[in-house]
Amino acid sequence: MSVRDTHMQKSKKKHDWVKRLKALTVCGAVAFGVLTCTQQFGDMPASAKTISQLEQEIKENNQKIQEQQQKLDALKQDMNKQQEAEDALQEQIKTINEKISLVDVQLTTINQQIEDTQGEIDTLEADIAQQQIDIDQGLDSFKKRLRAMYVTGNDSLASALVGSTDFYDMLSKMDLIARVADHDDKLVTGLMEQMEQLKSSKEQLVSKQNEQELQKVEQEKIRADYSDSIQELNTKVQQTKAAQAELQEEADAANKDINAYKAENASKEKEQDQIMAEIKRQQALATKQNNSQTTTVTKPDTTYSGGRFAWPVPGHYFISSPYGNRWGKMHQGIDIASGGSSISGAATVAVASGTVTLVKTGCTHNYKKTRSCGCNGGYGNYVVVTHADGYSTLYAHLASVSVSYGQTVSTGTVLGTVGSTGWSTGFHLHFGVMKNGSFVNPAPYLGI
Ligand SMILES: [Zn+2]
Ligand SMILES: [Zn+2]
User: Fold this and answer.
1) 0.90 surpassed by complex ipTM
2) Is the pLDDT of residue 154 over 90?
């Protein structure tokens, strides 16, 4: 059932109890109006029934709150799991980013190496160019000397060499040159050997650079793979975030429901209070009518000699607070507290036979307090038993209740256990006696 449905039912019920209360006015309630009405109409008293129904609805709402709370707990667990998954993914991303940093350091080193090698190659190329110049110059001076030789008449040899323009072509005729100019031959051969060494060094450097370029490509491939992994992980992170957002939405909805049920219960409790106030008003009215109609004078309570009621907490007889003015207010009953042994959890019993006409439960704050937690108007968990002759008895601040509405009880029937629920500064039983709807001093009825 949705919250709105419950609201609609509630307003209908409210209308019902107003009608029933009007019926109650006609029947003229005596002490909670229960017995009179039950006898006249063979029906439960309207107000008490409505209170009981409201109690039931509040219980149902509390059940729904508990269900939503369980759902909320499950959602929170799911959210925690998603958060853990996200944390794990973020941890992986962090690890891979650290690896990328290492690859970047490698790449920086490799790039530096490539640059250094290029520098060496540039230097070698400059050396090679210089060597070429040296060789060319050596050749020139050689040619000049040959020309000089030609001028002096060594014709056949000179013309053979001067005619060749290609240096390498000339080298092929080295045996000839060797015979002509042994000194120049050695010079040029030396230069040529150096040239070959330079060129070979350059080849080595170029192949070294190629290897470095290969390493660079390899590292860049690794880096690209890492980047792909991070992208995949980021996609998963987005998925967990989306899942978390969905769970959060559900949790928000559950919280909203819980708050709605709580607000509904608060208004139901207020309604119960209004009904209780109306019952008291009716009772007061009935008492007044009785008093004005009767000519016989009832025996005053002060002359009562005791023995009507049994003791409400067998084994515990310490009165911590009597009936009467207390803290500037009327204390409408007596408080029976721990004397020698602890009264907490002791059984409280019906002081006379009768019918259970009110049961209020739901208070869980069973401990002493310095102020009221407001539960059930301060009485905490309590029971009202209606007896013959217009008497009702109240047993308040109970830890637990073991009777239900409408139950017939005998003297000594256990009603519940003594506690400290509601506005209670310590474990005790607040025992009240009502006669024709008004609280009276319980002491004479208990023979004290
Ligand atoms: Zn409470
Ligand atoms: Zn009290």
Assistant:
1) no
2) no
Distance CA 75, CA 62 (A): 20
What's the CA dihedral at 119, 125, 130, 131 to 10 degrees? 130
Q: Tell me, in angstroms, the distance from the centre of ligand 2 to residue 447's CA.
A: 18
CA of 365 to the centre of ligand 1 (A): 4
Return residues with CB closer than 5 A to ligand 2 (ion): 335, 430
Rg of the chain, C-alpha, whole Å = 55
Q: Which ligand is nearest to the CA of 374?
A: 1
Q: H/E element holding 89?
A: helix 46-151
Looking at CATH, the fold of the domain delimited by 1-146+200-297 is given as Helix Hairpins (1.10.287)
Alpha helices in 152-173 (DSSP H): 155-162, 167-171
Pick the CATH number of 305-446 from 2.60.200.20, 3.30.70.60, 3.40.190.100, 2.70.70.10: 2.70.70.10
pLDDT tens digits for range 91-115:
999 999 999 999 999 999 999 999 9
* CA–CA distance, 75 with 85 (Å, rounded to integer): 15
Residue 380 alpha carbon to ligand 1 centre in Å = 7
Task: State the pLDDT at residue 61.
Answer: 92
Scored b (16 or more CB within 10 A) or e, 115-129 reads: eebeeebeebeebbe
Burial class (CB in 10 A: 0-12, 13-18, 19+), 358: buried
* Mean pLDDT score of the chain: 80
Domain ranges of the chain: 1-146+200-297, 305-446
Distance from the first to the final alpha carbon of the chain: 53
* Total length of the chain: 448
